[in-house]
Write a structure and sequence with these properties.
348 residues, five-stranded mixed β-sheet, 12 helices, 10 strands, EC 2.3.1.234, acyltransferase, tRNA (Adenosine(37)-N6)-threonylcarbamoyltransferase complex transferase subunit TsaD
Amino acid sequence: MPRIIMGIESSCDETGVGLVRLHDDNTVELLADEVASSVDQHARFGGVVPEVASRAHLEAMVPTVERAFEKAGLQLSDVDAIAVTAGPGLAGALLVGVAAAKAYAAALDIPLYGVNHLAGHIAVDTLQHGPLPDRCLALLVSGGHTQLLLVDDIASEIIELGSTVDDAAGEAYDKVARVLGLPYPGGPPIDKAAKNGDGAAIAFPRGMTGPRDAKFDFSFSGLKTAVARWVEGAERRGEDIPVDDVAASFQEAVADVLTMKAIRAAKEHGVDTLVISGGVAANSRLSELAAERCAEAGITLRVPRPRLCTDNGAMIAALGAHVVAAGRPRASLDFSANPALPVQIVSI
């Protein structure tokens, strides 16, 4: 019998509510995906302000839930289980979502599952491309995370192969955008500017790609600093800053390192499917270069559509559906959010 799973996401600056239908064959169908973003409230600060995000979640939660049910044509009484982001993320923001999920689960007397935000970014791909293979590699690239993950079972077994040692790729985009006078968040404006620039114009460094560096870890702090120093040097010389070329060259460096290490990891672990997810997965150059290199290596590439790449409730509902299908234990109503929840813990 089909089951309706509700997902609540509130780890950062998006309040997301998703509804999915879990079918008897364990396929997952998306019914509704509603998001309320507080990004405009953070723009003048150049980054997310935790207290502002928490207050925005409080204001947006119930209206977002109502929109999701209206979109799906369902009632709260139709829901069979609730999944909520338990971590990682901002402590206050997570608590808003967890408190809401507990309230709905208690009122409806239905199972509650606390799930991992990072695993949700992988699970959301199943809403577009169907079930994941028995083993795949995931490149998770977002504002706060850059990780290479080996996925044997999305509901229970995820192994971290590598992670960023400093700035995540998304953070570097935001900081470089600020240097170039582009708006926050930096990903979309840099991508737009780069389309008119030359990615080979400036030879920016590729961090942690030397023979002594960790094979699957990432570093973008040095790249960010190199861009800032290049711009400062041009300004001292009284030169106009070629924003398009700087953006394109920076973006090329990021995409080059991400795809290079992903292909290397896939080959070393004998994996023939790569899933790229997270907000930066919507970047046009990353998708383009990944497609080229995967084709050359005989690797199947899966990238969710941009709407599913950014934080949303659909990804939490999708992961919740897989956790339910796998028969994983439900969470107790007294569980706590964990801002530092490791990716290896899929559900709590």
